[in-house]
Amino acid sequence: MRAVDWQDFRDHLSTxxxxxxxxxxxxxxxxxxxxxxxxxxxxxxxxxxxxxxFVRVHGHPPLLLNIVERRFVVLGQVFWxxxxxxFAVALLVFITGIIVFTAASGRLWCGWACPQTVLMEMVFxxxxxxxxxxxxxxxxxxxxxxxxxxxxxxxxxxAIFLGLSFLIGNTLLADRHRxxxxxxxxxxxxxxxxxxxxPTVCSxxxxx
Length: 208
Fold this sequence. Notes:
Number of strands: 3
Order of helices and strands: HEEEHHHHHHH
Number of helices: 8
Structural class: mainly alpha
Strand content: 5-15%
């Protein structure tokens, strides 16, 4: 077996040391006009995400993928199982559009509009910078011994992460349960889910 050349980045994982232990990455906080533009776009996309469950198009949510009841809504248009050919064609056109747009204009989708990028870089990463500082401060904190200050920073940061995950998960599931919640609050007696469990508990479980 050929020995690993640790000087060649192609010959080993950059996130593992020679003993196989993980090397943690500490990204430096970006700055500049493009980052400010990304921040503005991210706030707009986050506002759309939060307001989405409260917006109605022709009496329907803008986007709803109800797999259990086999009902799919895209921009207020309801698609049933017999409409899957149209839905599949539209989905293929959408995915192909993203691929062509990315190939023509670089990583604009991945770097500017992808939900994972927006939530990671513009929400969770900013909270990490707030509590642990920029990359040098994070490295110093990681090497520092565990004390009350370090434990408090880590605990508060992860508690906020968990709270935001709970909020985001419930927001994404709000369309799925809003009508059933309304019936329960009005006393119609219909359970919020098919197994009779609370939608809030259901949403919390999915988000965790």
